[in-house]
Each structure stands twice: as structure tokens, then as C-alpha cells.
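Input record, target 12 of the design panel.
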């Protein structure tokens, strides 16, 4: 393997590389993602992509990152059910995003959500994905694999895995699971948001109204 180097990315360069990374995990065109974030012309985007190609950050296909380009980004992975979006989620996801350049959120499948919550989720996994994708700090959400969280981790290959203060996963379990897929990650346990704000508290307080909708 050749010697790769890291360079300090300018904001537009980081946006372009981030958009190409997100595009590789979805069916979206990276240019469309870029235009949603910043008002620049196709000419400016094309010029900057060419510059990134010259700096060995983007491959000649203009759609994928080189190893150096990928290593220039810090990807954060977070996960949860996200059945009732509340301020605690916003706090946690903002904290997760602050740890890196890209925030990918894994949405629990309906079966996993039912096991965790001891009930059927109010929204199915596709609806919950749509809700999370609408949050400004989230670059992309994906529905997780049934029964094996490390299949999704292997797909994303993050540098950081952010755990919510109330998530049951233990740091050692995550670290050892990542070693099995040859992934060196930092596991960050996020601080608690406002204690009284949680999905379970909301449901307990407004359960009858919510389930009656």
C-alpha cells in the first residue's frame, strides 16, 4: 500500500467528499446532495472535484473517494429506535455530530424495536428513517440488520461509534465486535440530556393519547 497523507480540507472540499461518501451508501447523486447544502453552480462543483482528483482525494470516476479521501473524513455512527423524536434525541445527535464530519444513524428494525420497547413501535422502520433523515445534523440514516449490529458497522466503517447515555450496549462489547471485522474505532458514551426527557417518559405521560391517534 502506498503512502497516504492527510490534508486540511476546505469547507467545500469537505462537503464534496462527505457527499460522495453518503452517496456510496445510498442511491443519491453526490451533486444533488452538495446542492442541497450550499448554493453553488455545477461549474464550481466540477472545478472543485477536478482539484480533489489532482490532490488524490477523489477517483477519476468523479463519484468515489480514494483511500486518502476517505481517511480525510471522520465518520460517526449512532443508533436507536427513534419512534418519538424529542429534544433528548436532538441533544444526543448534535453531540454525536460534533465528534466528526459525517453522522450516520442506524434505525432499529421493527422487530428489534419491539424487543427493546416491549411493544410495537408507533412508526414502522421506514417512517422512522424518514423522520431521522429530516434532521439537519444527520447526513444519512440506514435501517439496521436484524440481529447483528456489526453487519451495519462493517458497511459504514466509522471512526467513532457514539452511544447514548441510556443505550444498553457496553463499550467493551462494541470494541471487541469491531476487532472481529478488522475495524479500529473509538467508542464515545454521550452525556445525558435533560433527564426527564425520554421516549419512555413521554409515552408514559401521553400514552393513551399517542396510541389513540
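The sequence produced for target 12 reads:
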Amino acid at each position: 500500500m502506498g503512502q497516504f497523507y492527510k490534508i486540511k480540507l476546505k469547507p467545500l472540499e469537505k462537503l464534496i467528499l462527505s457527499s460522495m461518501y453518503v452517496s456510496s451508501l445510498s442511491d443519491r447523486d453526490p451533486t444533488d446532495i452538495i446542492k442541497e447544502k450550499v448554493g453553488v453552480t455545477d461549474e464550481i462543483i466540477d472545478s472543485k472535484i477536478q482539484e480533489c482528483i489532482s490532490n488524490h482525494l477523489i477517483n477519476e470516476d468523479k463519484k468515489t473517494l480514494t483511500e486518502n479521501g476517505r481517511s480525510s473524513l471522520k465518520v460517526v455512527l449512532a443508533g436507536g429506535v427513534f419512534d418519538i423524536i424529542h429534544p433528548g434525541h436532538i441533544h444526543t445527535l448534535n453531540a454525536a455530530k460534533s465528534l466528526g464530519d459525517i453522522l450516520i444513524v442506524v434505525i432499529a428494525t421493527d422487530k428489534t424495536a419491539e424487543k427493546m420497547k416491549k411493544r410495537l413501535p408507533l412508526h414502522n422502520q421506514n417512517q422512522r428513517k424518514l423522520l431521522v433523515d429530516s434532521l439537519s445534523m444527520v447526513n444519512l440514516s440506514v435501517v439496521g440488520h436484524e440481529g447483528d449490529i456489526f453487519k451495519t458497522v462493517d458497511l459504514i466503517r466509522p471512526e467513532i461509534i457514539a452511544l447514548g447515555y441510556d443505550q444498553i450496549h457496553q463499550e467493551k462489547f462494541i470494541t471487541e465486535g469491531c476487532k472481529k471485522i478488522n475495524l479500529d474505532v473509538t467508542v464515545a458514551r454521550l452525556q445525558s440530556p435533560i433527564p426527564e426527557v425520554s421516549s419512555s417518559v413521554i409515552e408514559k405521560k401521553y400514552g393513551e393519547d399517542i396510541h389513540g391517534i
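Residues 11-71 form one domain.
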